[in-house]
């Protein structure tokens, strides 16, 4: 354990050091040439400034599109709003410059929040469409609005040699816009500083429980809501955050250009930003940094222009790909050959290199046991330990629950009670309605009028999955639903993130409390992995783990929130006998800590071995409720489920199920 923790700590320190190096490199890139005394050339300032602007906008976009999976084609519109509103506020309102910039960023954020109210209801291509329409609308708005000078731009002057914007002053020193004064190192200082601070804020969000929740949302909304994330609330938040980064980029653009033209903010800007994110690696921390530098270097080094000229000279001077066409081609090639972008591709290579050079870790114990003999021996030992269910408090009561799917009665007037510290098995033939009942219990489907659900003394009718999670209910799924790109450790951490109670501002600033909670969450997740015997796989991406281990990671994630009620949907499916036996032992150990377990399962040897109480369903209705011994004698159960040839296994039994 301590070795693992030390390795984790070392890994964290390495990541922190890398962030610091990147931030310093960004700062040096933006600031040093200006402070060296050499006047910045106009084109140099333009290149460096535009890289800073694009970086900030792309970082925000990566949170939205890369981490949360909401592809936005409208990030350029928020840059436009930030730029125009900051120019207007500097010129017209007489506000001190910091307030003028804050006003502009707030305007972008507010518009983003309004747009998110619509976008948060949607997903996938619909979000892309809505943001595309928004980008076109905003561009047209700045083309049409008299106050912003229409096509002539803003401020509306034909004399572009001097800026109409009052230069920003810091301590009496004016920050001349470099395009006009030719140098403007202080402007570059300000722009560089904003870029670095924005990058750090982006990193703080991405590398936190908040960032993990975005990636969970992107992978599977239903699963995310079962680990306490409110999908709509989180989508609204990330939309607003991305718009805020866009607004910040816009205020930087104003400082660099001083004269704004609508043509700088066409849909192409939004398209370029999403290309940068995808090229660098959507959802990867350094994706936007790499994407912005590569694409902008290609543009500013005139490499693109050279390729266009090459085509014209050697192929055809009428049929050739323009610079924009080449950028589009780059996007297509990236999506086809490098879907995880340059950073993702490099990480994959690195992992392959490391696995090749690391001795294989111990595999799970595949030693085959004589399960039948073991089960019978355990069952006989336990038969004498029948428990008195009345001594265990009820923690969940479901009454009169019915659910129809387009005329099919999947659940028919079901009753179910779970008791603290006991295992209640829910069995029945395929299609009996077990999973539907679980989904009704955890809020995936609403309960019909007349049904009641009480969970830990609270009325739970109408509560969505994330609210049911907060009551103390955790679940697993019929097929393991892990976040495949994340390590096993991060998957387990995500199970307790919603309970950490980290505020957004504290996360943004990475306050000491956040760092402490993050370390504790890691520690707790490692403990759980160790408890399930899979700690050596902590750093492996969940998607690369064998099926049985994925089930264990999912169980650890469910346990991470310290649930009072644990619902497991066919946890033994796909496990070998040895793994199933270990699972049974684990479930008994969990129940012994006071957790109520609802076990949906077809493996009768497991059910009979561990269940204190059994409910059998057929065609949506309850046909049996009692102990495991009674289940095997019940004529309806034998006819509908177990079959006449069922060999009776002795189980735990209970005195009054
Ligand atoms: N989303 C859905 N839309 C329509 N019908 C559904 C839906 N989900 C389940 N059903 C139907 O409802 C019935 C109950 O299905 P459910 O998955 O709850 O059964 P189950 O007991 O969990 O089965 P299994 O043991 O195979 O998992 C089945 O007839 C199934 O086809």
Give the arrangement of secondary structure elements:
Layout (H helix, E strand, L loop, with lengths): L1 H34 L6 H26 L7 H19 L3 H23 L5 H20 L23 E3 L2 E3 L2 H4 L3 H22 L2 H11 L1 H6 L4 H27 L9 H14 L6 H14 L2 H12 L8 H15 L3 H17 L13 H13 L10 E12 L2 E12 L3 E5 L6 H8 L10 E4 L2 E2 L5 H7 L1 E3 L12 H13 L3 H6 L2 H20 L15 H14 L4 E5 L7 H16 L3 E5 L3 H7 L2 E6 L2 E6 L1 H6 L1 H8 L15
Parallel strand pairs: 5-10, 5-11, 8-9, 9-10
Antiparallel strand pairs: 1-2, 3-4, 3-6, 6-7, 11-12
Helix pairs in contact: 1-7, 2-7, 2-8, 2-10, 2-11, 2-12, 3-4, 3-5, 3-10, 4-10, 7-10, 8-19, 11-12, 11-14, 11-15, 16-24, 19-21, 19-22, 21-22
Any overview of this molecule?
The chain has 26 helices and 12 strands. It has 657 residues and is α/β, with parallel strands linked by helices. It folds into 2 domains: 261 residues, ABC transporter involved in vitamin B12 uptake, BtuC; 271 residues, Rossmann fold. The strands form 3 sheets. The chain has a 6-stranded mixed β-sheet, with helices on both faces. α11 packs parallel to α15. The structure holds adenosine-5'-triphosphate. Adenosine-5'-triphosphate (ATP) binds next to β4 and α17. Keywords: ATP-binding, Cell membrane, Membrane, Nucleotide-binding, Transmembrane, Transmembrane helix, Transport.
